[in-house]
Amino acid sequence: MNWFYRPLPLLLRPWAWVLAYPFSLLAALRVKLYGAGWLPSQSMRVPVVSLGNLTVGGTGKSPMASWLVDFAVAQGLHPAVLTRGYKSQGQGLRILEPGGDKLGMEEVGDEPWMLHLRHPKLSIYISPKRVEAAEVAQQQANLLILDDGMQHLALQRELDLVLVDATRGLGNGLTLPLGPLREGVSALRRASALLVTKSNLCDPTALVEQLKAIVGEAVPLFLCPFIPEALVLGGGPE
Predict the structure, then answer these.
(1) Which of 17, 110, 215, 223 could form a disulfide with 219 if both were Cys (CB 3.0 to 4.6 A apart)?
(2) DSSP state at residue 61
């Protein structure tokens, strides 16, 4: 989908808003239905922090989730992570527990598995029904980290952290199917904070100005540099 981040072909430009508008309208209507209570949104007994993004594709949520786990543990908290397990082969609720070896990477997905390897004492709940996963997780955790949660409005949250990749920005500014946006850019105003990731890999000035023009001063913005910790070589046969 690299063409999402380039100017539209001339042939599509006259039709851009016509094609993208229905998706934008449905996304905005869905948010309003949740806000009005027409669609149910469940709160938990413990705080929920959501990590999400406005664009399709990766923005660095997994490294940020890992950092949040470390930060929460350093504060004396007992976090758990809720994730849908994108492209996993397992069904229903699966739990990666400390010391557990009943599940493999194929059953939970590669990102939860990497998080499990980095945080072996962390409980990770994998399910597309994250409200149900949260109800189970809150029995042993006092902080829930909701992965890819910006559009998962069925679960209420205390903090809504939205990540934007500095190297790709908001692309052509259009929603699916013509652009990378899951919702219109005004959805960024729902964020508790904007985190501009990979901010040291390019000059983020223009993007920061664009984001501030959208959200104003009400939503704080933070630059998050990309800093590798190690180079790990594969151990396959030579």
Answers:
(1) 215
(2) H
Domains: count for the chain: 1
Q: What is the Cα 100 distance to its own chain's centre? A: 26
Torsion sign over Cα 30, 65, 146, 117: positive
Angle at 152 between CA 67 and CA 197, to 5 degrees: 35
Give the mean pLDDT of 167-173.
92
Using an 8 Å Cβ cutoff, are 51 and 165 in contact? Answer: no
H or E segment and range at residue 146: strand 143-147
The predicted pLDDT at position 238 comes to: 47
- Using the Cα atoms of residue 204, residue 207, residue 146 and residue 107 in order, give the sign of their dihedral: negative
**Average pLDDT value for residue range 203-232:** 93
Place of tokens 């758990």: 80
Tell which residue, 201, 193, 225, has the closest CA to residue 67. 225
Tokens representing 116?
Answer: 């499990």
What φ, ψ does residue 102 adopt, rounded to 5°? Answer: -85, -20
pLDDT digits (tens, 9 = 90+) for 172-204: 888 988 889 999 999 999 999 999 999 999 999
Domain with residue 160: its CATH number is 3.40.50.300
Please tell me the total number of residues recorded for the chain in this structure.
238
- Return the SS3 of 182: coil
- Domain range holding 176? 48-224
